[in-house]
Amino acid sequence: MNKKTISSTFLHWLLLIVAVAFAVSMAFSWLMQTRTSQRSAVNLLRLNIQDVQKDVMDASDANLLKITRNVAVQLNANPGVNEAVMEALLELYDIAEINIIDETGIITASTCEDYLGYDMRSGKQSAEFMILLTGSQQELVQNYQPISYDSSTMRKYAAVCLNRGGFVQVAYDAESFHKDISLQVIGATRNRHVGEGGGIIIADEDWIIVSDRNKNEGKNLSITGIMIDRDTMPEGKVFQTLVYGEPCSCMYVLTEGYYIIATMPRNEIVLQRDHSVRITAILEVVIFLALFAEIFWLVRKLVVNSINKVNSSLSKITGGDLEETVDVRSNVEFSSLSDDINATVSTLKQYIAAASAKIDQELAFAKNIQQSALPSVFPPYPDRTDFNHFASMDTAKEVGGDFYDFYLLDEKRLAFLVADVSGKGIPAAMFMMTGKTVLRDYAERGDGIADIFTNSNNKLCDGNDAEMFITAWMGFLETDTGLVRFVNAGHNPPVLIRNGQASFITQKANLTLAAMENVRYREQILNLEPEDLLFLYTDGVTEATNSSEELYGNDRLLQVLSADFSGENACERVCRQVKRSLDDFVGDAPQFDDITMLCLYYSGKKADNRNAAELTVEASVDNLASVLAFVDEQLEKAECSPKSQMQIDVAVEELFVNIASYAYAPSKGDAVISVYFENEPKQAVIEFRDKGFPFDPLKKDDPDVTLSAEDRAIGGLGIFMVKKSMDDIFYRREDGQNILTIKKQI
Amino acid sequence: MNIIKSGEGSALNIALEGRLDTTTAPQLDGEIKASVDGLTELTFDLAGLDYISSAGLRVLLSAQKAMNRQGQMVIRNVKPEIMEIFEVTGFVDILTIE
């Protein structure tokens, strides 16, 4: 999906809304303007008609009144006037009739005989003149209209009071007064404009044009294009028609026998409206553009910019910077959002702190477990004068992937090793524990050192899904001779310090452990001379880095080890010296890798302090009593407890009878039994040696002690009882001898 | 080792004193084999037995097997250190110890 930014979405909608608003307002404005234009056009037409109408009326009123006053002057001068005089006046003024009305409102004299005796009160039109008899008014003019006596006759009347009482009434018909006022009518319309292009046309009752700007006076109105049908086109209402070929709005009234027609071109009306609408449109465009720009700018400023600020802070936070705070205070909403985000981050920080405290605690436990898995009491064999050693491990993290180990395989062989698991932290630490255990298991089984590595490698490869590996250097020191049998599985070469000179033991290494199955490891040898020191380490030493990214390196190591370390605690001093040198070199730079060191000192002095008592007898059951007597004598000297003595006796009996029965059968041979004691824990060590057939009794399966009497085999019980009652038992074959050793705390 | 036999007819009581080991076990084995015919009740009194090795256990096991066929065998007055050996070797489940 194509996602839009807020501002572009906003822009689209705003544009749409503005466009709709513009269209609606324009339509409204157009309608209003149309109506206004129409109305003003109508008003204009009406005003012009009224003006002309007034002019015409004023002219005809003034004309008739003037004639009437003249007639009244004549009559006042000749009170005994007769009808002949009135006829003469009629001729003179070209008027339609003259009536004389007495004080009672009755026509007493008239140029028209029919009217004599007519009561002025009997018609609406004539009754208007009765006002003159009240004395409040001396003159009155009426519009051109049907008369009361005969409604089919149209006349215009005027009346003036007479000195003798009553009044004289003079009437005009259209023909005669049109003649009198035609000049005024033409003058009133010739130069009159309705709007720009409109005008007034006046026609008489016979549709003959009286006045027209186009000078068509005397012609029929139809020449202009105007046709008036009084039934469908009422006076004073607008109608549309073509005037001289131009569409116009027109209006007419009928006044004093004239049709006064005002015309105005439609174009002009529309022009007015279009002009207004255009101006409105321009104004609206300007206003809407300004509004649009303002709103858009506000949205950007108040929303988009704020969101961008919040987003930039959020991306810092998701990038891991939990110290970042959001501080957008441009308005209440963003202020509240900022506070919420800050509160969330702060809560998150608390949870992370709690979680990391828990992890720290667990790591501390793990570190404890790991440290306690490594032998840490030095010297481990205080009564040995033929060798001693010291080891240390400093992990880069709480738990490490390095390890060292050492143990006596028997009285004359010390196993020792240093190893490094690939990687660091908990996975490395777990694999380290496995590696250490596997190596020790195979070593204690009595395998040769090459077999230990071959077997351990296969075991470690099995299920090594994490694809970790271990580099290891392990040696067996034969304390009698100083011979070290060793295997190097991809590990750093150890340093030999002889006469204050340090050098690497550079022999070809084997593949690392756990890298590939079925690798055959080679045993190599190294001869230690008395007073030699052998220094084993992991790459945490040589690859320690200072703040300038320099490595500690082999040369510095050789340099610091090329010194005279002879004297007490040589091994510990070697390790401490290297550590000090490393610390000086590294300075403040953080430790990246585990640093493990093991130093072995070989004195070459024989281990004679065992004070072993030895008895050599023919291996025969007949000698059992003397063997037991010899062993008991040693145990009693060592103040052995009766219970342990009995268990040791049983073990000695079983093992000796075993040798006597099987070692040389069917011929005869000797067995050597030696007894000595170790301290801490105080234990008896009894060794049986014979030169018979190679036989490891420990490999025999244990009997099933849960079977019933009927199913139990006779035999195998003896070794089983020894295994169960002794603290330690091991077998080795050496120099053509079977050597079986048992240990038991006394 | 002293072997003290008592009882009559089909019941035999054997009291052992001292050490029952490789050298003395054949002696006990011989005594039992000599008396086992017709025996329905064999009792060992181990109050005086200080020591037993696998050779002694074997004799007790073969005696138990023989008595399973013709009667019953009971062992009495076992010292704690001997009892521990019976327990370790699973003999407590085979022997009837009172």
Notes on the protein architecture:
The complex is a heterodimer of chains A (746) and B (98). By secondary structure, chain A is α+β, with helices and mostly antiparallel strands. Chain A folds into four domains: 1-96 and 173-309, no CATH class; 325-373; 380-602, PPM-type phosphatase domain (Phosphatase 2c, domain 1, 4-Layer Sandwich); 613-745, Heat Shock Protein 90, CATH 3.30.565. Helices cover 41% and strands 23% of the residues of chain A. In chain A, strands 1, 2, 3, 4, 5 and 6 form a six-stranded antiparallel beta sheet that branches. In chain A, strands 7, 8, 9, 10, 11 and 12 form a six-stranded antiparallel beta sheet that branches. The model of chain A has no long low-confidence stretch (mean pLDDT 87). Chain B has a single domain (2-94), classed as STAS domain (Transcription Regulator spoIIAA). The radius of gyration of chain B is 12 Å and the shape is globular. Chain B has helices at residues 25-35, 54-70, 80-88, 91-94; strands at residues 2-6, 11-20, 41-52, 72-76. Chain B is α/β, with parallel strands linked by helices. Helices cover 42% and strands 33% of the residues of chain B.
Give a topology summary.
The complex is a heterodimer of chains A (746) and B (98).
Chain A: H1 6-77, H2 83-93, E1 97-101, E2 107-110, H3 124-127, E3 139-141, E4 145-146, E5 154-161, E6 167-172, H4 174-190, E7 193-194, E8 198-204, E9 209-211, E10 239-243, E11 246-255, E12 258-265, H5 266-318, H6 332-373, E13 387-394, E14 402-410, E15 413-421, H7 425-444, H8 449-461, E16 470-478, E17 483-489, E18 495-498, E19 501-504, E20 524-527, E21 532-537, H9 539-542, H10 553-561, H11 570-586, E22 595-602, E23 613-618, H12 624-637, H13 642-663, E24 670-678, E25 683-690, H14 717-725, E26 728-734, E27 737-745
Antiparallel strand pairs in A: 1-2, 1-6, 3-5, 4-5, 5-6, 7-8, 8-9, 8-12, 10-11, 11-12, 13-22, 14-15, 15-16, 16-17, 17-20, 18-19, 18-21, 21-22, 23-24, 24-25, 25-27, 26-27
Helix pairs in contact in A: 1-4, 1-5, 7-8, 12-13, 13-14
Chain B: E1 2-6, E2 11-20, H1 25-35, E3 41-52, H2 54-70, E4 72-76, H3 80-88, H4 91-94
Parallel strand pairs in B: 2-3, 3-4
Antiparallel strand pairs in B: 1-2
